[in-house]
From TrEMBL:
<dbReference type="InterPro" id="IPR020843">
    <property type="entry name" value="ER"/>
</dbReference>
<keyword id="KW-0560">Oxidoreductase</keyword>
<keyword id="KW-0521">NADP</keyword>
<protein>
    <submittedName>
        <fullName>NADPH:quinone reductase-like Zn-dependent oxidoreductase</fullName>
    </submittedName>
</protein>
<dbReference type="InterPro" id="IPR011032">
    <property type="entry name" value="GroES-like_sf"/>
</dbReference>
<dbReference type="Pfam" id="PF13602">
    <property type="entry name" value="ADH_zinc_N_2"/>
</dbReference>
<feature type="domain" description="Enoyl reductase (ER)">
    <location>
        <begin position="1"/>
        <end position="258"/>
    </location>
</feature>
<dbReference type="InterPro" id="IPR036291">
    <property type="entry name" value="NAD(P)-bd_dom_sf"/>
</dbReference>
Length: 260
């Protein structure tokens, strides 16, 4: 197949801030003419991660789950895909971002609440008396503890990302992940909680064909209007510095897109 002149999407391992990139042909997915590049760019990282996390958790329409940091990039992607599946989602965020969680059918709770686990359990009792099937944590140890506390017995605690610190100067991956991995390993030895960790880069590297097929599936959902990626703003590539400042401010809701 010739890809010359065609619109495509792909998951990049790095170097996306450029007018031109080189990508293995095996990773390319055709981009439908009806899908804008700005919305498609939300899929290869945030939505791909969310899709694969939900598959690992085996979430169905009968389930209710907890999403910590629900107004973030992967958080909103999880909510969007959960809403498409008909599952119930309780999502933590700051109060000014409640409307973002509600936009995707989620039930918001204040992530800064002193007793966050208690607040989540209160909401869960109202909508899921059987308990929460899974909890998705993209934060630090507090996030993991809350996720474990709200799960039904045998529920899955899925951890991704980490405490990244400043966007432009994140701490080394091992420094931010090792404490979480140690805690998850200890909890995973009990029957009360199942645990799993997820890295999009690792998943794509180990299973590139699966990642390509998943991206094609997500593009189909987007073309059919079943998912609605949230774009915070579009900035010219030359304003990448401003994009980072916006990300670090914590005020951006949705994807910050750089346009060549």
């Amino acid at each position: 197949m010739s890809w010359s002149g065609r619109r495509v999407a792909a998951h990049l391992s790095g170097g996306g801030h450029a007018t031109h990139v080189t990508v293995p042909e095996s990773r390319l997915v055709a981009l439908p003419d009806t899908v804008s590049a700005a919305r498609a760019v939300c899929l290869p990282l945030n939505y791909l991660a969310a899709h694969q996390l939900l598959r690992a958790a085996r979430v169905t329409a009968d389930n209710a789950v907890f999403v910590d940091g629900a107004s973030g990039g992967i958080g909103t992607a999880l909510l969007d895909l959960l809403n498409d599946r008909g599952a119930v989602a309780i999502g933590s965020c700051s109060p000014p971002k409640y409307d973002t969680v509600e936009r995707y059918g989620g039930i918001p709770v204040d992530r800064h609440a002193t007793d966050l686990a208690g607040r989540v359990r209160e909401r869960a009792e109202q909508v899921a008396p059987q308990g929460l099937h899974a909890a998705f944590s993209g934060g630090g140890l507090r996030s993991l503890r809350v996720g474990r506390a709200v799960l039904a017995p045998g529920g899955l605690l899925a951890a991704y990302g980490g405490d990244v610190g400043p966007v432009r100067h994140p701490p080394p991956a091992r420094a931010r992940l090792l404490p979480r991995l140690a805690v998850l390993a200890a909890w995973g030895t009990t029957r009360r909680t199942r645990t799993t960790t997820y890295s999009a880069q690792r998943s794509v590297r180990r299973h590139p064909a699966t990642a390509r097929d998943d991206l094609a599936h997500l593009l189909e959902l987007l073309a059919r209007g079943r998912i609605d990626p949230l774009v915070a703003t579009e900035l010219p590539l030359g304003q990448a510095e401003e994009a980072y400042r916006l990300l670090e401010s914590g005020t951006a809701v949705g994807k910050v897109v750089l346009v060549p």
